[in-house]
Amino acid sequence: MVSLTRRELALAALAVAATLPSSPASAAPATARLRLPRPTGPHPLGTVQMQLPGPEQRPLMVSVWYPARHVAGFPRARWLSAAVLPALLESAGFAADVAVSPLTAGHLGAPAAPGRFPVVLYSHGAHDHRADTTVIVQELASHGYAVVTVDHTDDAYSQLSDGQVIVPSEDRPMGPQDFADDVRSVLDQLGHLTLPAGLGRALDLHRIGMFGWSKGGTATARLMVQDRRIRAGLSLDAPMLPPLPADLDRPFLLITAENTRAAEPAVAEFWSHLRGWRRNIQADGAIHSSYMDYQVLIPQLAEAANLTDEELRSWIGTLDPVRAVRIQQAYPLAFFDLHLRHRRGHLLDGPSPAFPEVTFLP
């Protein structure tokens, strides 16, 4: 098992803190009512959550997002449950009611649309949760993908099916290989689950991709080497903690911010082992959490938390949140469309005038 490095712990703390901007002691507590941007695809969204057995008898909470046939009468899911969000806030010493979890575009239990959907798996970062890239997840699902997100029990804020709220454990350090093992366990079960009407038949398990943020990005790389069912992988600013995998012959996209090839030898080493299609892009002004929901949610918390402009920049960098959302929606979709659906566009060919802040690194 790989323990967390001092730097990864610092990055994990940033990821948690990014959802939890504090209020000055003299200010009365305020409640921020958060909102997520809507996805751009043609499909309404269904979602279902379930508890699955994971390695070492650990329960894993999983959500599946998918195109829905219709959503009338099916309630919208929240980004985090009313029990989990206060636990996350209080763990960092903030008032439990400083924010209300936003509603997502996903409708709980809606019947699946007809068709066959490529499957994309998601692995979160250290001390985080499976909802932290909902902007990307919803975008993919709205364009015809089934996206499976996994809470890594013992390193996640989550709520089990019996209502128990669980938080990251200090007694069981989780490394990228543990995350990879969790996702492989879920993947092994995907063909045998009880799912909303039509969804089980719609999952195309011959077209599978995976992405992850931070430690989850490292887990994506490891699992791709270990399991050829995963045909394409994407990393959101992963440190690629060693030991690194051997050569990888399938497509991989690095979206970097702080864990760049110039700054992190492990990332440069991983890049040198990519033998298939590869790209490395980076947005000007991005920080470690900029390719996640935090980039759009934290500015909404700024007024309630009385954040100064300088404090806000420390949480989100200088990448404009509206532009960050467009990047999150456009580039993962273009990548999986190219490599799971063979739909060739031009966004990944090189710099685009539509995204002047995105650099292609040689």
Automatic annotation (TrEMBL):
Keyword Metal-binding: no
PROSITE patterns assigned to the protein according to its UniProt record, in alphabetical order: TAT (PS51318)
Gene3D superfamilies reported for this sequence: alpha/beta hydrolase
Pfam families attached to this UniProt entry: PAF-AH_p_II (PF03403)
Keyword Magnesium: no
Molecular function terms, GO-annotated: 1-alkyl-2-acetylglycerophosphocholine esterase activity
Entry superkingdom: Bacteria
GO term, biological process aspect, one: lipid catabolic process
InterPro entries documented for this protein: AB_hydrolase_fold, TAT_signal
Residues in the signal sequence: 1-27
Keywords: Hydrolase, Lipid degradation, Lipid metabolism, Signal
PANTHER family: PLATELET-ACTIVATING FACTOR ACETYLHYDROLASE
Protein name: Lipase
Lineage start: Bacteria, Bacillati, Actinomycetota, Actinomycetes, Micromonosporales
